Amino acid sequence: MSLELKKVKELNNILWLIKLRWIAAVCLIIAITAVKQIFNIPLHYFVIYGIALFLIFENVALLSLLKWKVKKDKINILSISNKIINAQISIDFLVLTAILHYTGGVENPFIIYYVFHMVLASILLNIVNTYLQTSFALILVGLLTFLEYFEIIPHYGLNGFIEPYLYKNGLYLIVTGFIFVTTSYLVVYLTNSVTWQLKKQKEEYIQANIQLKQKDIIKNEYILRLNHNIRVHLATILSNLNVVTTGVTGEIDEKLSKFINVAYSRTVQLADFVNDLLKLTKLRLDNKLEKQKFLFADVVKKVLDTVKDTADEKSISLTSSLDTSVGNFYGCRFSIEELLTNLLLNAVKFTPDKGKVEINVKDRAYNVLIEITDTGIGIPKGELEKIFDDFYRATNVKDNIDGTGVGLTIVKQIVNRHNGKIWVESEKSKGTKFSILLPKLNYKQI
Ligand code: ADP
Q1: 376 Cβ closer than 6 Å to some ligand 1 atom
Q2: Measured from the CA of 276, which atom of ligand 1 is nearest?
Q3: Is the CB of 346 under 6 A from ligand 1?
Q4: Which residues contact 122 (CB under 8 A, 6 or more apart)?
């Protein structure tokens, strides 16, 4: 687990205890008010309200400490989190004992609430600290019972609710004490075992994930090297074939020219495939894209210029609209160009002659919504999810339509890197609509 992740985890544990304490303080105020109003049991209500206020004060003090010391990195949370959690649980046990003392002592059935903190300790602390905290709680309860029994401190009974003088009944105290102690240790033991198992599984899962990521990097680096080698050879083959097809080496007969043209076009396809694979592998390997501020309209215009000729060749009408309020966008300009070009070229490629392709860019508060619609062959329903997979081409694509099946994988990668979303709607033989939602301010690393 990375250091940052560990810090966040420890901070969340502390915040979790604080959140539970807010709930406890509110519940205590409601419960004690209800007891006062409904049962009218004579108790030291102001002391108990005071204890609830102390819980609120404890939370405020802790939150201030976290805000000023930890968030501003004056203290490393990892070095103090264990102490803070231990201190919180110990203080809560003391508070619970104080509440118990003013509300019937060992006679109060709410004595069982100690178990909640024992479970929390099992989840948040190591085994030694958990048993120490549990023993501390049991000592506190034992001490309270002892002091009340021998009347060293007063006993505040729950008159009208629980039979008075139970705290003086030796047999009751022994049986209750036995049940309480065994329940506490059993709960802690069980919670500890489950938590330990879960922690072990999580650790294994994290390790497996790290290994998978490392293997993925090795695989991608391997593809990258392979790609470079193949590209060099392909460039040589293409330039040689080019020399032959342009007639520089002399006239070639029609039969031979047919074979050379097939070889040439297949080599071009292979070069396209290798290029796409190279782009994808680079995207997967590079953790950061270079981001900058640019006018979204400029990118759309450039992409339309690139695609226009291909659309004209098929007499496809290529239209666009852009909300003027879209303005500047913060992201990787080169990747956004690549993304839009891929989607528009696909739309043109999969749309029959004289069809329509349009791109609409809309302002959606904190996002830019891009919709690319065509009147093309569509995508079969069951395959909509698969088209973003590596090398996937839908079953309705004819063999004579060029393609590598990598374009949409690149598109998806780029969208993810900009913390965006992409989805597709399509009807076979009617057309397809790709929608992309990109956050305008990409503060996160892209
Ligand atoms: P290709 O090189 O085949 O275009 P892509 O990864 O770009 O590969 O697309 C994957 C598949 O998704 C395509 O082969 C096609 O089946 C489907 N597809 C993508 N865009 C469209 C579209 N506009 N209309 C119909 N099908 C599409």
Answers
A1: yes
A2: 2
A3: yes
A4: 130, 187, 188, 191, 192, 195
For the Cβ of 338 lying below 6 angstroms from any atom of ligand 1, the answer is no
pLDDT of residue 78: 75
Q: Is 123 in the pocket of ligand 1 (CB under 6 A)?
A: no
| The 3-state secondary structure of the chain, one letter per residue | CCHHHHHHHHHHHHHHHHHHHHHHHHHHHHHHHHHHHHHCCCCCHHHHHHHHHHHHHHHHHHHHHHHHHHCCCCCCHHHHHHHHHHHHHHHHHHHHHHHHHHCCHHHCHHHHHHHHHHHHHHHHCCHHHHHHHHHHHHHHHHHHHHHHHCCCCCCCCCCCCCCCCHHHCHHHHHHHHHHHHHHHHHHHHHHHHHHHHHHHHHHHHHHHHHHHHHHHHHHHHHHHHHHHHHHHHHHHHHHHHHHHHCCCCCCCCHHHHHHHHHHHHHHHHHHHHHHHHHHHHHHHHCCCCCCEEEEHHHHHHHHHHHHHHHHHHCCCEEEEEECHHHCEEEECHHHHHHHHHHHHHHHHHCCCCCCEEEEEEEEECCEEEEEEEECCCCCCHHHCCHHHCCCCCCCCCCCCCCCCCCHHHHHHHHHHHCCCEEEEEEECCCEEEEEEEEECCCCCCC
* pLDDT reported for residue 443: 44
Mutating to test ligand 1, I would choose from 339, 386, 393 the residue with most ligand atoms within 8 A of its C-beta, which is 393
Q: Which atom of ligand 1 is nearest to the CA of 406?
A: 6
pLDDT at 71: 62
- The predicted model scores a pTM of 0.62
Q: Ligand 1 centroid to 420 CA: how many Å?
A: 20
Nearest CA to ligand 1 atom 2: 403
pLDDT by 10-residue block (mean), the chain, 446 residues: 72 89 93 85 89 95 83 70 92 95 89 91 91 96 94 86 77 88 90 88 92 91 89 92 83 85 90 89 80 92 95 96 92 93 96 96 93 97 93 90 90 93 95 95 49
Between CA 3 and CA 64 the distance in angstroms is 23
Q: Which two tokens stand for residue 389?
A: 């997979």
Hey, which of 388, 400, 408 would you mutate to test ligand 1's pocket, going by the most ligand atoms within 8 Å of its Cβ?
408
What does the alpha-carbon distance between residue 126 and residue 116 come to, in Å, rounded to a whole number?
A: 16
Could you tell me the distance, in angstroms and rounded to a whole number, from the CA of residue 26 to the centre of ligand 1? 58
CA–CA dist 400, 393 (Å, integer): 13
